[in-house]
Design brief:
The chain is α+β, with helices and mostly antiparallel strands and about 190 residues long. The protein has one domain (about 5-180): Gcn5-related N-acetyltransferase (GNAT) (Aminopeptidase), CATH 3.40.630.30. It is about 30% helix and about 30% strand. It contains five helices and nine strands. The chain has a nine-stranded mixed beta sheet with strand order 7-8-6-5-4-3-2-1-9, with helices on both faces. It is globular, with a radius of gyration of 15 Å. About 35% of the residues are buried. The chain binds coenzyme A. Coenzyme A (COA) binds near residues 94, 95, 102 and 133. Coenzyme A binds next to β5, α3 and α4.
Length: about 190
């Protein structure tokens, strides 16, 4: 299995996962502060991280998109970002190592992912892009605002009250986005 680059930005790249990435993924999901608004709201166990990685590998194989591995310019894994499913839409998601917060990285990768979504629409289910954050998660809501998402309403996700966001008018937004350097499926 080869690792492939999904897209690049000025400071970041998203790549596909390998089974050998378990330790790095488990470390990302082991920090209580990072996990406060993610999943169960607590650190993953190693078995949960293993299931998470298996899910990402399966999604990449079966449909070609998932929450990908995020690396910095030195190739260090610093988080994950991409798409899940929520409310019958593609759902933008990102999580970074705590030491990398506050540098605009989630916003940078979010802009690139919106562009990727607009260029890789399946024309059917998952054509539309949404995002949701737990009510009160101000930092993540701020990222969505900076990318250009609009708050629609509050609705639960897996029983948790969330702020629900959509892109306003995707075609217009696309014209305004910075164009990230983006490549598909290049080997690294
Ligand atoms: C939420 C998260 C992805 C934001 O990533 P980021 O790269 O720090 O985002 P940005 O640098 O663009 O900052 C977004 C906002 O967060 C706030 N923020 C970020 N770092 C901060 C810090 N160290 N102190 C105070 N506020 C901070 C700021 O309000 C900032 O908005 P501003 O640029 O208008 O000042 C990151 O904190 C994270 O990975 N959290 C854990 C996982 C998570 O919650 N994921 C999202 C689930 S919905």
């Amino acid at each position: 299995m080869n690792r492939r680059v999904v897209l690049t930005t000025r400071r970041l790249a998203l790549t596909t996962w390998l089974p050998s990435d378990l330790d790095e993924l488990a470390e990302l999901h082991s920090d209580p502060e990072t996990m406060r608004f993610v999943g169960h709201g607590r650190p993953d166990t190693v078995d949960e991280a293993r299931a998470r990685l298996a899910g990402y590998l399966d999604e990449q194989d079966s449909r070609g998109w998932t929450k990908w591995r995020m690396v910095d310019c030195d190739g260090k894994m610093i988080g994950r970002a991409g798409f899940g499913e929520a409310y019958s839409r593609r759902d933008l998601a990102y999580t970074l190592l705590r030491e990398r917060w506050g540098q605009g990285l989630a916003t940078e990768i979010g802009v690139a992912l919106v562009d990727w979504h607009l260029r890789h629409r399946p024309y059917g289910l998952f054509d539309d892009l949404c995002a949701h954050v737990q009510v009160g998660h101000r930092n993540s809501a701020r990222v969505l605002e900076k990318i250009g998402f609009a708050l629609v309403d509050q609705r639960p996700c897996k029983g948790v009250p969330c702020d629900y966001f959509e892109l306003p008018v995707e075609a217009d937004l696309h014209d305004e986005l910075q164009t990230p350097q983006s490549v598909d499926a290049d080997p690294v």
